[in-house]
Amino acid sequence: MSRTIFCTFLQRDAEGQDFQLYPGDLGKRIYNEISKEAWQKWMAKQTMLINEKKLNMMNPEDRKVLEKEMINFLFEGKDVHIEGYTPPEA
User: Fold this and answer.
1) Is 4 helix (H, G, I), strand (E, B) or coil?
2) CA–CA separation, 49 vs 32, rounded Å?
3) What's the burial of 49, exposed, middle or buried (CB within 10 Å: 0-12/13-18/19+)?
4) pTM of the entire structure?
5) What is the DSSP string of 34-46?
6) Among 9, 21, 26, 61, which one is most buried in terms of CB atoms within 10 A?
7) Of 32, 28, 25, whose CA–CA distance to 5 is shortest?
8) Is residue 49 within 8 Å of residue 41, measured between CB atoms?
């Protein structure tokens, strides 16, 4: 059973997450405001960030860096800057 939410990232109604994907209050906010589609966009960026910056998810500092980028991307409207990556022309 899918749920529809107003996705603050896409600025429209969209299919919400099936369950909370991230812990704590931030996770609740993502669950309530970020659609599956927007989360997929973030997951692609996250993979590029982890690879480029060689982040280790066991390292709390690296997780903080990633969380900050996630908040900027999902809620602040800031794209992730990846060295040497040029987005394809739309």
Assistant:
1) strand
2) 25
3) buried
4) 0.85
5) -BHHHHHHHHHHH
6) 9
7) 32
8) no
Q: How far apart, in whole angstroms, are the C-alpha atoms of residue 68 and residue 19?
A: 22
The CATH number of domain 4-76, selected from 2.102.10.10, 1.10.3880.10, 3.40.50.150, 3.40.50.800: 1.10.3880.10
Q: In whole angstroms, give the CA distance from residue 52 to residue 57.
A: 14
Distance CA 25, CA 75 (A): 14
Asked if pLDDT for residue 88 goes beyond 80, the answer is no
